[in-house]
Amino acid sequence: MTNRDPAFDDYVLKIYQVLEQLDYYRLLGVTKEDGKLQVKKAFLKITSKFHPDRNTDAPPNVKQAIYEIFKRLNEAYRVLSDPDKKRLYNEQMEAGKKRFSTDVRMSMVPKTPEDTIKSKDARQFYVQAKQSLAANNLMQADLHSKMALAREPGNQAIKDLVNMVAAAKKAR
Length: 172
Description:
Layout: H1 6-18, H2 24-28, H3 36-50, H4 60-80, H5 83-94, H6 120-134, H7 138-151, H8 156-171
Helix pairs in contact: 1-4, 3-4, 6-7, 6-8, 7-8
C-alpha cells in the first residue's frame, strides 16, 4: 500500500507535458527581477517536492517525469543564480529560446586563471605563489610557482605566473 497522492502524480505529468514550453522563470516561479536569494529559496522549495529520492514509490512514468523535471530545475537554478549566465539567458529569451544554449553554457568556461588548473596540488601551489608574489616574497613565489608547474607542466596560467615571478626577480 502506498501513500502517494494521485493528484500530485497528475500534476507532475501535466508539468512534464509542457516542460519544453516553460522558461526558467516560470519553472522556478520567480521573476527576472528576483535576486540570487529568491531564486535559491524557490529552487529549494520546489525541489523538495520533485526530488527523485522523495518519489521512489511513484509509478515508472511519473518517476521518469520527476527525473526530467528535476534535471530542468537544476539547470534553471544554475543559470538564474549566476549573474553572467542569467544575463545571457535573458538575451536568449528575447530571441525566443526557453533553455540556455549549450554552446554558450558558461559552467565550463574558467572565470579565473586558477579555474584552469585541474590538479588540486598545483592549484594550491599556484595560490601560494600568487600570495607570496603579492607580499613581495620572491623566493617563496618562485618555489611555489615552480612546484605548481611541476604538477601541471602544460598549464598556461601557471607558466604566466612563473614568468611574472622571474620578471619580478629580474627587476629587483
